[in-house]
Amino acid sequence: MENKVENMRVFSQVVAVMVKNLLMLSIGMSVGYVGIIIPALTDPNSKESIYMDEAQTSWTSAIIPLASLIGSAFSGSITEPLGRRGSMIILTVPCVISWISYYLAEESWQIFATLILHGFTNGLVKAPVLIYVAEVTEPRLRGLLASTTLLSTSIGIFLAFLIGSLLHWRIAALVSCTVPLISVCLLSRLPETPYWLLAQNKPEEARRSLAWLRGWTSEVKVEQEFQQIQKNVQMHPAGVDNPAFEDDSGRVIPLTKFINAARPTVKDLAKRSFLRPFSLMAFLFIWSNFIGVGTTQIYSVVIFSTFKAPVNKYYASVLMSSARVLASILCIFIVRLYGKR
Question: If both were cysteines, with which of 87, 177, 186, 274 could 82 make a disulfide (CB 3.0 to 4.6 Å apart)?
Answer without folding.
Answer: 87
